[in-house]
Design brief:
heterodimer; A: 527 residues; alpha+beta; Ubiquitin-like (UB roll); Alpha-Beta Plaits; Rossmann fold; 3 domains; 16 helices; 23 strands; B: 419 residues; alpha/beta; de novo design (two linked rop proteins); 18 helices; 8 strands; 11% strand
Chain lengths: 527, 419
C-alpha cells in the first residue's frame, strides 16, 4: 500500500486512492466543487489543485492517484493562490445575488470565498447573462442558470445514480448553461438529491425555497419513517419563528450519510413527507366529544381492561399495533398486552401496500415491520382480530398508529366500532379512524421521541427527539406506561433508553446492543 | 528539394486512384503487408524521426509502440483531420489532392498497430475534403485496397469518414474521441492516454493527416532517407501554411530546419508594398508571437520551443507594420472565448473575461486597471485546465500584451484628474 505525506502528515492508503480521498482520511480539507465521493470524477472545477513534489504542474487532488513516497502540499502559497484564482473565475459571471438566494448560508461559493478567496474584485465588465432564472424544471426542483458553476454534479447524479439522464450542459464556453433536455422534466423518485449535491444556489428545492434561512435551522439525526429501508436523515427544524408557516417546526429533511443504508441519498417520498409533523395533529386525549386529561384517559382504558382481566376475559381485548411504532413502543405493548394481560390478541396493524423501486424506496412503507416481528412477535393476524371484532367477540379494541379506514374501509370500521365497548385510537394525526374511535390518544411523531427502528435488513437505527411533543401528545411507550400504572403493573421507565436495555435483555437478537453501540449509523441484529 | 506530402499536389486528377497508381501508389502498403512485420514497421517509423505534425510533435513510432499488443480489445486508428487551428490549411490539401496517400498510410499504420478499423474525423466545414476522401475510400474498397483481406494479405481494414460538428476543441484528440462516440466534445482527463483507453474504451492511435501521409514514403524509401531530410530529432519536411501580409501566401513543403526568415522572404515572397514585418505567429494562433528580431529561428519543434514559442500546426501568420496589435490580440481572444469548450472553470470564464477586457481596451474604453489586470487574468488560465486550450489562451494572448504593451497603453483612457 502506498505511503504518502500530505502537509507533513503521513498516511498509508490502498493503491488507487486519490489525493483528495487520502486528505479526507487525514482530516485535511481540500476545497471541492465538482468532486463528490459518490459520483464519477469530472475534474472540471479546478479548485482542488494541490502541489505534488517532483511534478511540474499542480495536480487536481480529485483525480490524481497517490503513489508511494508522494509528498503533497495543500497549504503552499501556490495552492492558496490558485484557489483564489479559481474562485475569481467562478464568480466572474456569477450574479452574487446572495441576499435573495436561498442557498446563502450553505453555499460553497460563500464558504470558500471566506476561507480561500477574500480578494478585491477585479471585474469591471458586464457579466454574461444566462437564460433561465428561478425556473421550475420539475415538480420539486428549481433551476437558476446564472448561479450555476457548471460543476456537473447533478448531470453525473442523473447519469449514474438514477440513470435517468435529465440534465445536460448546453452551449459552449462562458455561455454554457445547465438545463434539462428539451421535453424532459426532472421527475424521478430521487429528484431532491440534486439540490443536496448542488454546491451553489443553482438548484433549489421548491418545497423549502424561501421558507427559512438556513442559519435558523437546527438539525437532529434521525431515520426516515417512510419505508422499511430506514434511510438515515437529519430533521432540520426551526422553533425560533413560530409566526412563520403556521408554527411549523420542521422545515426540511436531508439525507445523512450511511454507506450501509442509503449512502448520500434519500427518495423524494421520504424527503417531502414530513408536513404531517406540524399539521392536523391530535392535540388532546378525547373521549367521544369531550376533551379529557391524561389521568382520565388512562383511567378509562385501565378500567375497561381491568374488568375484563378480573373476569378472566382477557381474550376480549385486541391490539393492532402499527409498524410505525419504535422498538421501544412495541416492547411496552408486549409488556402490557402480552405479559400483564396474557390472552389478549395482539397483531400487526394492516397498512396500505406502497410502491417501491429498485433503489432505496421499498414497497413496505413502514419503518419497523422487522421490529414488530422481533419484539412484538404477534401470534395472530389483523384479519382474525377484525373478524372477531365484527362478530362482537372483542370488547376493547386498541389501535396504535394505523388508519384502519384507509385499509379496511369505512363500513368495516364502523361495524367494529359498533360492536366493541371501547375503541381506542392512539396516534399522531387526525384521520378517518379517529372519528369512529371512542377514545383518541395523542401520540408523538418520530421527530418528537427517542427510540429505534429495525429496517428490512435487520439494522437497528436510532431516532432522536428534535423537539418536545406537540401540546399534550406523548410518546407511545409513555402512554402505555400510564395505562400500565393504572392497572397496578407500573413499568419503571422514564426514558426510551431504559426500555432498550430491557429489550436487549429480553430479545436475544438485541442482546449485544446499547444506544451507545448503535450510535449514528445503526447496528445489525444478531441472527 | 525532394517533396513528400505535397509531391503530387497540383497534378491533374491527383485525387483519383488511377493517378495515384501511376505514381507508384500503394507500393509501400504492399511492401509493408507482404514483407514486413508490424514491429519492423514501428521500428522504421521510430528511426525516421517522424513526429506528430498536428502540432504536438510527439514521436510517431513511439506513440504506436504504446498500443498494448496483449490487450484483447479491438484497436483503432483515428485520423485527426479536424483542421481548425486558425492559420492552418495543409491537411485540407492532402485530403483534397492526395487522399490515397493518406489511405496508404492508414493501411500501413493499421497493420503496424493491429487495427482493423480506422476513422477519419474531418472538419465539418471541409465539404470538398469530405467528398474527395469518401470518393477515394469507395475507389479503394472497389479495388481491394480496403475491406476484407486488403491487397490479398488476409488483413482486414475498414475506414469510416466522420464529419465534425463545428467545434475547434474537437481537434484536441480526446475531445475528438468523445465527439466520435457521439458525445459533446469535452477533452478527457489524462491519464489514461488513448493508447490504453481510447475510442470506445479501446486502445487507440490518433494521428494527424500529414503525419500518416508521410508513412508511405518512409516505408518506400527508408527511415534514414526521411530522417536525413530534417533536423537532428525531427525527420522529414513540413507543410508550412503562410498567410497574412506576404506576397505569396500558401502551403509550402520545406525541410524542418528552414528558418522563419527564409520562409517569409524567400518562399512567400516577402511583405507587400515594401512594408516592414511587425510580428509573426509561427505555428497557428495558439503559438506565442515572435518579433522581427526572432525570425532567424529554425522552424522545427525544438528550436521554436527553445525561444518560447511553438511549431504547432505549421500555420504562420505574418503581420506587417500596419497591424494594430491590440486588434490582433482581440481577434485571437475572441476566437478563444468562442471556442473554449466550457468544461474547466478557469478557461470557460477566463477566456470570455480576457476577450471582453481586450475588446474594451481596443475600443478605447479601457482604464489603466484593465491593462494592469490583463496579464494576471491571462496567466491564471494556463496550467490550470484539463487540456492545452487553456495554455494556448495564456501563451497566445499573453504574448501580445507582453511584447506590444506600448500599443495597449496607447489605447488606455487616462483617469480624469480629480477636480
Amino acid at each position: 500500500m502506498p505511503n504518502l505525506t500530505i502537509d507533513g502528515k503521513q498516511i498509508e492508503v490502498p493503491a488507487g486512492t486519490t489525493i483528495i480521498q487520502a486528505a479526507d482520511k487525514l482530516g485535511i480539507n481540500i476545497p471541492r466543487y465538482c468532486y463528490h465521493p459518490a459520483l464519477p470524477v469530472s475534474g472540471n472545477c479546478r479548485i482542488c489543485m494541490v502541489e505534488v513534489e517532483k511534478m511540474p504542474k499542480m495536480q487536481i487532488a480529485c483525480y490524481t492517484p497517490v503513489t508511494d513516497g508522494m509528498v503533497v502540499h495543500t497549504q503552499s502559497p501556490k495552492v492558496l493562490e490558485v484557489r483564489k484564482t479559481v474562485l475569481e473565475f467562478l464568480l466572474v459571471n456569477h450574479p452574487v445575488d446572495c441576499p435573495v438566494c436561498d442557498q446563502a448560508g450553505e453555499c460553497k461559493l460563500q464558504d470558500y470565498y471566506m476561507e480561500h478567496g477574500q480578494y478585491d474584485s477585479r471585474l469591471a465588465d458586464v457579466k454574461v447573462k444566462k437564460e433561465k432564472k428561478a425556473f421550475s424544471i420539475g415538480p420539486t426542483v428549481m433551476l437558476d442558470q446564472e448561479r450555476c458553476i457548471l460543476c456537473t454534479r447533478c448531470v453525473r447524479f442523473a447519469d449514474t445514480i438514477t440513470k435517468t439522464s435529465e440534465f445536460g450542459v448546453f452551449s459552449r464556453g462562458d455561455h454554457s448553461q445547465l438545463d434539462v433536455y428539451p421535453g424532459k422534466k426532472l421527475d424521478n423518485n430521487y429528484s431532491g438529491n440534486v439540490v443536496d449535491i448542488c454546491p451553489v444556489g443553482a438548484l433549489t428545492d421548491s418545497d423549502f425555497r424561501f421558507k427559512c434561512r438556513v442559519w435558523y435551522l437546527s438539525a437532529t439525526k434521525s431515520v426516515c419513517p417512510g419505508c422499511s429501508q430506514g434511510c438515515n436523515i437529519t430533521v432540520e427544524w426551526d422553533k425560533s419563528r413560530p409566526h412563520q408557516h403556521k408554527k411549523a417546526r420542521v422545515m426540511r429533511l436531508k439525507p445523512r450519510l450511511n454507506p450501509d443504508v442509503n449512502d448520500y441519498w434519500m427518495c423524494d417520498k421520504g424527503r417531502y413527507d414530513y408536513h404531517f409533523i406540524d399539521e392536523n395533529r391530535i392535540l388532546h386525549p378525547q373521549l367521544n366529544d369531550d376533551l379529557i386529561n391524561w389521568e382520565a384517559a388512562a383511567n378509562t382504558v385501565a378500567q375497561s381492561i381491568k374488568s375484563l382481566k378480573d373476569a378472566g376475559q382477557s381474550s376480549r381485548i385486541a391490539v393492532l399495533a402499527s409498524a410505525q411504532l419504535t422498538n421501544e413502543d412495541l416492547f411496552m405493548v408486549r409488556k402490557l398486552f402480552k405479559e400483564t394481560l396474557s390472552g389478549a390478541h395482539v397483531a400487526l396493524a394492516p397498512s396500505v401496500p406502497g410502491k417501491g423501486d429498485d433503489f432505496l424506496l421499498k414497497s413496505d412503507w413502514n419503518p419497523n415491520t422487522a421490529g414488530v416481528v422481533n419484539i412484538l412477535q404477534p401470534q395472530t393476524d389483523a384479519a382474525q382480530i377484525v373478524q372477531k371484532a365484527k362478530q362482537g367477540e372483542i370488547d376493547v379494541l386498541y389501535v396504535l398508529g394505523a388508519d384502519l379506514v384507509k385499509v379496511l374501509g369505512k363500513d368495516a370500521v364502523r361495524q367494529m366500532a359498533g360492536k366493541v365497548k371501547l375503541f381506542v385510537y392512539q396516534g399522531s394525526n387526525i384521520n378517518e379512524t379517529c372519528s369512529y374511535a371512542h377514545l383518541n390518544l395523542p401520540a408523538s411523531v418520530y421527530a418528537e421521541k427517542e427510540g429505534t427502528f429495525t429496517n428490512m435488513h435487520k439494522r437497528v437505527q436510532k431516532i432522536n427527539a428534535a423537539f418536545m411533543p406537540v401540546v399534550e401528545a406523548k410518546p407511545d411507550w409513555e402512554i402505555i406506561g400510564l395505562i400500565s400504572a393504572k392497572l397496578g403493573a407500573a413499568l419503571p421507565y422514564t426514558q426510551a433508553q431504559q426500555i432498550f436495555k430491557d429489550i436487549a435483555a429480553a430479545v436475544p437478537a438485541f442482546s449485544e446492543m446499547t444506544y451507545e453501540k448503535i450510535g449514528d449509523q445503526g447496528m445489525v441484529l444478531k441472527s | 528539394m525532394e517533396k513528400i506530402a505535397s509531391r503530387r499536389f497540383g497534378q491533374d486528377n491527383s485525387h483519383l486512384l488511377a493517378s495515384y497508381l501511376k505514381d507508384n501508389g500503394y507500393a509501400a502498403a504492399r511492401k509493408a503487408l507482404t514483407g514486413m512485420t508490424p514491429a519492423q514497421i514501428i521500428d522504421e517509423v521510430k528511426k525516421s524521426n517522424l513526429r506528430g505534425l498536428g502540432g504536438a510533435g510527439f514521436p510517431t513510432g513511439m506513440k504506436w509502440s504504446f498500443i498494448p499488443a496483449a490487450n484483447p480489445k479491438p484497436k483503432y486508428l483515428v485520423i485527426n483531420a479536424d483542421e481548425g487551428e486558425p492559420g492552418t490549411f495543409k491537411d485540407k490539401y492532402i485530403l483534397e489532392q492526395d487522399p490515397h496517400a493518406l489511405l496508404e498510410g492508414i493501411i500501413i499504420t493499421c497493420y503496424a498497430i493491429g487495427s482493423h478499423k480506422a476513422y477519419i474525423y474531418i472538419r465539418g466545414e471541409y465539404i470538398k475534403s469530405l467528398q474527395r476522401m469518401q470518393a477515394a475510400i469507395d475507389e479503394a474498397y472497389k479495388e481491394k485496397y480496403l475491406g476484407k483481406g486488403v491487397m490479398g494479405s488476409g488483413f482486414d481494414i475498414d475506414v469510416v469518414v466522420h464529419p465534425g460538428g463545428g467545434a475547434y476543441i474537437c481537434g484536441e484528440e480526446t475531445a475528438l474521441l468523445e465527439s466520435l462516440e457521439g458525445k459533446k466534445g469535452f477533452p478527457r482527463l489524462k491519464p489514461p492516454f488513448p493508447a490504453i483507453v481510447g475510442l470506445f474504451n479501446c486502445p487507440t492511435v490518433i494521428n494527424n493527416v500529414e503525419t500518416i501521409a508521410c508513412v508511405g514514403p518512409i516505408i518506400n524509401k527508408g527511415a534514414e532517407w526521411y530522417a536525413k531530410l530534417g533536423s537532428e530529432k525531427n525527420g522529414g519536411n513540413r507543410l508550412f501554411c503562410i498567410s497574412g501580409h506576404v506576397n505569396k501566401p500558401g502551403v509550402y513543403e520545406l525541410p524542418n530546419g528552414t528558418t522563419l526568415r527564409e520562409l517569409i522572404y524567400t518562399h512567400a515572397g516577402g511583405i507587400p508594398n515594401g512594408r516592414q514585418l511587425k510580428a509573426v505567429i509561427p505555428g497557428g494562433i495558439s503559438a506565442p508571437l515572435l518579433t522581427p528580431d526572432q525570425i532567424d529561428v529554425k522552424m522545427d519543434f525544438d528550436s521554436l520551443k527553445a525561444i518560447g514559442s511553438m511549431a504547432g500546426s505549421g500555420g504562420i501568420i505574418v503581420m506587417d507594420d500596419t497591424t494594430d496589435m491590440v486588434w490582433a490580440a482581440m481577434v485571437a481572444a475572441r476566437f478563444f472565448a468562442h471556442e473554449s469548450c466550457g468544461q474547466c472553470s478557469p478557461c470557460r470564464e477566463g477566456s470570455g473575461w480576457v476577450y471582453r477586457n481586450v475588446k474594451k481596451i481596443y475600443h478605447g474604453h479601457g482604464k489603466p486597471h484593465d491593462l494592469n489586470n490583463l496579464p494576471g487574468i491571462v496567466n491564471n488560465i494556463g496550467g490550470n485546465t484539463i487540456c492545452a486550450f487553456g495554455d494556448a489562451v495564456t501563451m497566445s494572448v499573453g504574448s501580445y500584451v507582453s511584447k506590444f504593451r506600448h500599443e495597449f497603453e496607447a489605447k488606455i483612457t487616462k483617469e480624469p484628474a480629480h477636480a
